[in-house]
Design brief:
The chain is α+β, with helices and mostly antiparallel strands and 277 residues long. It is built from 8 helices and 8 strands.
């Protein structure tokens, strides 16, 4: 009786071990790559997977998007500006068989190729492009890394440059450059304003010159504006044209041209005294 119980317990333990070695449960985002005696059989999952005990071996692969933080890289741009750049890459496995068979560790391999591509691409760009053209650089990085990881069954979704660090001296130089650019724009805007004002004044002068009465009205308007202020002394220029009706014909007219001078009278020959020889 005791021997039968021992055999039954032994068989139960063997069954549990066999079931534990042959039954696998994969989640929705997991796939299993099955090898049978070292040879690739198939990709299975998700759900319940049955394996041949001690013959089949399964490798789990996660199909969710992986966020890969690319470590800071020391980069020298094309215009010889040193900078420390770090980025982040988003990728996912689209072919679990290639991710297991074609590369030893697809996560490490993707990280290394991302660092290499980051140094290569940013080293060909100028510093101003690194600041202002990040979207284009991100697309170029994504394309290069995706082409390199495609044989491994890895799809790179996006690559984003997170931060760019430059030396303190370069930061001060960039600040001075930005300040000089602001001053240049301010001077250009001021010059354009003066040019437009001078042009408008020229147009106004042309309009006023067609009618002298408009100039007198402008004088009166200026006198009204000055009188509105609390001033004790008012200096107002009075044109002589306004005094001509009151002067009438008395006095010289400054606008009347002067008569030409009389020609010199030549003396008569008979009036000359005789010459002495």
């Amino acid at each position: 009786m005791a021997a039968a119980i021992t055999v039954a317990v032994f068989l139960a333990i063997v069954i549990v071990v066999v079931l534990g070695a042959s039954v696998r449960v994969l989640r929705e985002y997991e796939r299993g790559v099955v090898f049978r005696l070292g040879r690739l059989v198939d990709q299975k999952g998700p759900g319940l997977i049955l394996l041949i005990p001690f013959i089949d071996r399964m490798v789990r692969v996660d199909l969710r998007t992986v966020t890969l933080n690319i470590p800071p890289q020391e980069v020298i741009t094309r215009d010889n500006v040193p900078a420390g750049v770090n980025a982040v890459a988003y990728f996912r496995v689209i072919d679990a068989r290639k991710a297991v068979v074609e590369v030893e560790n697809f996560l490490m391999a993707t990280s290394q190729i991302s660092q290499t591509a980051l140094r290569s691409v940013l080293g060909k760009a100028e510093f101003d492009q690194l600041i202002s053209e990040r979207e284009r650089l991100n697309e170029e990085l994504q394309k290069i890394i995706d082409e390199s990881t495609e044989p491994w069954g890895v799809k790179v979704i996006a690559v984003e440059i997170k931060d760019v660090e430059i030396p303190e001296q370069m930061q001060r130089a960039i600040a001075r450059q930005a300040e000089a650019e602001r001053e240049r724009r301010a001077k250009i805007i001021n010059s354009e304003g003066e040019f437009q004002a001078a042009q408008k004044l020229t147009d106004a002068a042309d309009i006023i010159s067609t009618n002298p009465a408009s100039l007198q009205l402008r004088y009166l308007q200026t006198l009204l504006e000055i009188g509105s202020n609390q001033n004790t002394t008012v200096v107002f220029p009075l044109p002589l044209d306004m005094l001509e009706p009151f002067l009438g014909g008395n006095g010289p007219n400054p606008r009347q041209p002067k008569p030409p001078p009389a020609p010199p009278v030549e003396p008569d020959v008979g009036d000359l005294p005789p010459s002495r020889s």
